[in-house]
Amino acid sequence: MSARGAPAEGRGRARRGRHVGLPSSAGWSDYRNRCLIPRGYTLMLLGKSYLKRNNLRKKNGVGEMDEKGRKILSLIETDARLTYAQIGDRVGLAASSVHDRIRKLEREGAIRGYRADLDFGAVGLPITAFVSLALQPASPPDIPGKVAEFPLVESCYSVAGDNSYVLVVRAPTTASLEELLDALRAKLEVTTRSTIVLSQPFERRPMVGPSDSL
Asked: Helix axis angle, 84-91 relative to 95-108, nearest 10°?
């Protein structure tokens, strides 16, 4: 049978074979080294914005995608130090296929980047607080830009409700937190409401799990 009349399954295998393109034995050492994800780093995801476009779609309120792709994201969201070969062993793919999938996710914006996951207590910032800001008529227009000037503020979220912004603050002491609150009120003409974290039962759980998870 001609190539044009070959079964679709056979043609699919041929395409996949050309796409994988495993290196020769002579070049395998260099390829293996390039397949390492930097150690000591954690995954950052866009989440819902990615679930709404490209190869993901919504069904019954749950984002759907290829199951192997979801497993890959779940694995590296938990530990981005895993090599492509280790990920491939767990999801049933060749290391080269994992490499191609991860690069595609990076290009499409599902993976925004990699950064160190710090223990803030170990680096001298044991106090974590959520600070809500309510704007006043005299508040400046660029609140996020002004807030970014305070080094103890880790994150700034624009929110709906009685308050306009919620900040995540990392501070060395409660006294330094109090000084920050005074400075925010004085410089931004805002009212603040603070909640200090007592303990952290869990944080940053993998959010891309099996397709049937809620």
From this structure: 100
Q: How many helices (H) and strands (E) does the chain have?
A: 8, 8
Report the predicted TM-score, pTM, of the whole model to 2 decimal places. 0.65
- Total residue count of the chain as it appears in this document: 214
Neighbour count for residue 175 (Cβ, 10 Å): 10
Contacts of 131 (CB under 8 A, 6+ apart): 166, 167, 169, 181, 184, 192, 193, 194, 195
User: Is domain 127-196 classified as CATH 3.90.180.10?
Assistant: no
Residue 142 to residues 2, 4, 165, Cα–Cα distance (Å): 66, 62, 12
> CATH fold of 30-115, please?
Arc Repressor Mutant, subunit A (1.10.10)
pLDDT tens per residue, range 48-85: 444 444 444 444 333 456 889 889 998 998 889 999 99
